[in-house]
Amino acid sequence: MRRNFHFTGLAVLFLLVMSLFLGACGDDSDDKKTSDTSPTATIQPTSPSKDVVLTMGSWRPDDVEQMNRILAAFHDQYPNITVEFTSINPPEYNEVLETQLKGGTAPDLFYLRSYAVSRGLFEQGFLEPLGDLPGLNENFSPEMRAPWATDDGQPYGVPFIATSHGVYYNQDIFETLNLEIPTTWDDLLAAAQTIKDSGTTPFANASGDTWTMAELVFMNLAPTFIGGREGRMQYLAGERCFNDEGIVAVFDAIQQIALFLPENQGLITYSDSLQLFLQGQVAMWLGGSWDIPFFEAQEPGFAWSVFAIPAPTDDSSYVTFQLDAGMGVNAASPYKAEARIFLEWMTTTEFGALLGDELPGFFPMHTNAPELSDPQANAFLALNEGRGTDVRFTWEKLMEGTPSAYTLVESGTVAVVNGDQTPQQAADALQAGLAEWFEPAKTCMGNE
What we know:
By secondary structure, this protein is α/β, with parallel strands linked by helices. The chain has 2 domains: 52-163 and 323-381, D-Maltodextrin-Binding Protein, domain 2 (3-Layer(aba) Sandwich); 164-321 and 388-443, Periplasmic binding protein-like II (D-Maltodextrin-Binding Protein, domain 2), CATH 3.40.190. Helix content is 42%, strand content 14%. The chain has 19 helices and 9 strands. The chain has helices spanning 9-24, 64-77, 93-103, 116-123, 136-139, 142-145, 171-176, 185-197, 211-226, 228-236, 245-258, 270-278, 292-298, 336-346, 349-358, 375-382, 405-417, 423-434, 439-443, and strands at 52-58, 81-87, 109-113, 158-170, 201-203, 282-288, 304-307, 318-329, 388-390. β1, α2 and β2 (81-87) form a beta-alpha-beta unit. The longest helix has 16 residues, at 9-24.
């Protein structure tokens, strides 16, 4: 905001004389960095001739080398700005970051969870508003910006990383058994039965790490059985209850898959499941694109690829395309101008191409999507073609109260897989839990 001060003629004369005097003395006050917090401030480094080091906080310790190469490309264009990548153990990220923000020790830039968590940080005043950031509106659709914006569209983060869900499969096993990629749900179950009859375990998924039941199984299947984003919006609006035939159908599909999981699956962890697939002991793995780099590094002794969750007969198919991470600016950073320059660079297709190639399976969300060099990453992206996409079922609004939909979905899926609940019971528990705090669940059709 521009401030107008009114001086008397003598005061103005005094200031003019003093400015000439200070200029002649060669004052060094330009060494002191100041920042204009006005949302309409010009986006330029506060001291272009000075070197500035920005810190970036992340929950991705596996990406240090790749991110450093991306950040080096930025430094080549802006040699006076260096961005240092740091990371926090993923399960501890939210708590540690909020502690840092409250204590004044948070990084200048940091990864943002989508929806509720990052919005809470913005509402507490920890994030800089980005409504005037060049390139943000031009290069990202409203749907891509939404997870890091208020309900009325005020952005506070740049869309950064998306991940996709699907079914990894062992192409050698499929070829040996003369199996085609399933195009309907019944085709998938038939293929699983053929694989099981051959003496091979069909799916590597297991409930030893319960979060995988929520994210890799339920949220992988949900869009196809509830009608994609449109269906999910009906639940959020109270037009459908969370124990209707759509949710029951998701849990029913999970119950069907449970017949084809490894023996003693309740004792098998996420990493164990990955190894079962990589060792060729199972034919399929409901997973996410983030595992591409790991699979490629392990160099399994068989050909593998991915297909989308097939739809029930004659229904449309959908892909869970999770808008996973954004990037925000610490509202208390002394270098907000430089941080905004970095965010503006993130909106470019150049950045998107670097991201997609350095981190296969972590996708840019730019409207003009860059071509990627990794064939497996392209195979995952190709799943979106001709299909609807949506984010994970519980992410938007449904994790803002207690019990959260994530917790309810996780416990319900584990219970169905282990035979402790029927699909209807799991759906009823989801509806009852959300009705404790989520207004649309309290007043949904049939529950008024």
